[in-house]
Design goal:
Blueprint: H1 3-15, H2 34-43, H3 53-56, E1 61-62, E2 65-66, E3 75-79, E4 87-96, E5 103-109, E6 113-118, H4 122-127, E7 128-133, H5 145-154, E8 173-176, E9 182-185, E10 191-192, E11 199-202, E12 208-211, E13 217-218, E14 251-253, H6 260-266, H7 271-278, E15 291-293
Antiparallel strand pairs: 1-7, 2-13, 3-4, 3-7, 4-5, 5-6, 8-9, 9-10, 11-12, 14-15
């Protein structure tokens, strides 16, 4: 059985338990918690996972890249409710949508039990930490040399139009090779290799579309970022620079559960920059209601 077929079976098995209630410590099959569910499902196919989220974050193989590198059946790790940087939740990746920036996954949620959620939900988007590859890769990392040779020999060659195939100026044809590599044929009939990291999505009706790669990185879960201390002095070790006169400074009002690391990720900056802008350290306690300058 190919890895992709095994992944399909794992997802179909997981869907059999949709709606099963959540219960902390639940190992199934009548109640589950998040890691109880992932351990139960993968165990049915011979894969033994750890019982806690930190343990499962070390199972399988590390996966560093971007969202386009995820494959069906990957184990997803999310941050905890009280601390988005602490490994606290797990689910099973189902697939990307056509934008290449959002994916669906199945998991045991505290509210709703076994259900399918997606990354565009704010709660999960803020807490997505990374993924682990439990199953074999669907395709080898290095293309088969024979296929590469065929592609090289075709590059720049002319492929005549097929009489029964009518193409509009925006259409392109593709050539699929057995090892998963592919080439483009433009409307002039010229064969060329796809652009770097360009991917395609094939539909059952025979259509296809290019899928842009996401720039969201999947971190190495073996080396998580250190968590900020939960307590510390409010004294400032540096003097915060004055805000710009043009009023372009951006501020955030702290709410319960906010951390410097989560704010840096949300506003596309760094923890050190936030500390410098506010004259604080990573040990400073973030009190709800206080405003922090983030840019």
């Amino acid at each position: 059985m190919q890895a992709s077929e095994l992944a399909d079976r794992i997802i179909e098995e997981a869907k059999q338990y949709m709606g099963t209630p959540y219960r902390r410590g639940g190992n199934g099959p009548k109640v589950f918690d998040c890691t109880g569910f992932t351990k139960f499902i993968f165990g049915k196919f011979g894969y033994q996972l750890g019982r806690t989220v930190p343990a499962q974050a070390g199972d399988g193989r590390e996966l560093i890249g971007n969202l386009a590198d995820l494959q069906k059946g990957d184990l997803l790790i999310f941050g905890a409710r009280g601390n988005v940087r602490r490994q606290g939740h797990a689910g099973i990746f189902i697939g990307m949508d056509s934008t290449g920036t959002n994916f669906s996954f199945i998991h045991a949620a505290v509210h709703g039990g076994i259900m399918i959620s997606n990354l565009k939900e704010t709660y999960y988007k803020q807490r997505f930490l990374g993924a682990r590859r439990i199953l074999p890769d669907f395709l080898p990392d290095v293309a088969d040399s024979t296929a590469v040779a065929v592609l090289d020999s075709l590059a720049g060659r002319f492929v005549p139009q097929v009489d029964t195939l009518l193409l509009s100026p925006a259409d392109r044809r593709i050539i699929l090779f057995a090892d998963g590599t592919w080439a483009l044929v433009d409307t002039a009939g010229v064969v060329a290799a796809p652009a770097s990291r360009e991917r395609i999505l094939l539909a059952e009706n025979g259509s296809w579309r290019a899928v842009p790669s996401s720039t969201v990185k999947i971190p190495d879960l073996k080396k998580p970022e250190p968590e900020p201390a939960k307590s510390g002095s409010m004294s400032k070790t540096t003097t915060a620079p004055p805000p710009p006169a043009d009023g372009s400074a951006v501020y955030h009002t702290i709410v319960s559960g906010d951390t410097l690391y989560a704010l840096a990720r949300r506003y596309g900056t760094t923890v050190n920059n936030i500390c410098t802008l506010n004259g604080i350290t990573t040990k400073t306690t973030l009190r709800p209601g206080k405003k922090l300058r983030v840019r």
